[in-house]
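Entry:
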Amino acid sequence: MSTADTPQTWDEFMEGVWRQNPVFVMVLGMCPTLAVTVSAINAISMGLATLFVLVCSCGLVSLMRRFTPKEVRIAVYIVIIATFVTAVDYAIQAISLALYEALGAFIQLIVVNCIILGRAEAHAAKNAPMPAMINAAGMGVGFTIGLLALGVVREILGAGTLFGVALFGAGFQPWVIMVLPPGGFFVLGAWLLLFSWWARRRPLKEAAQNV
């Protein structure tokens, strides 16, 4: 990869991490985002699993883009994605049965995650393997960051721990609502409000500096 390609490569990666973050900008994949983020370890595990499936499936979709008939492309994408999801499913089950049970059916539901299918259709099917995988990696990292942001807040307030390590004394009273479904909506809403405020503030700050 030449030096001239580095800015474009970085832009491809950062598109999913920041400018088009799946959770905080495009608001996609809300089902696992709200369901598995009761703890930081669950959040990061789901994020990394999705990242792996994203990168591998988009790379293979890109490699096969010239040989896949348009009429069956969606079916082909789903088969490819399902193959990597099955590998992740068995890997998590082998590594930690407790984690596998905590994530539940949401591992298998990665197959129908609109982030993955959307990247395959909108980007991987139209670009070479390396740009497709870099873009997918950015989306996966952005999704992982979004899940982790929710998981950290919900675990700290809902259990008084972070990655299972106690942060407060015995007198801490957990906010039970944070580990319940409403807590996910509250924390997600707070993060979306923060990102919206930042997105509006940045152009105003740049305009003030240019005056």
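The longest strand covers residues 161-162.
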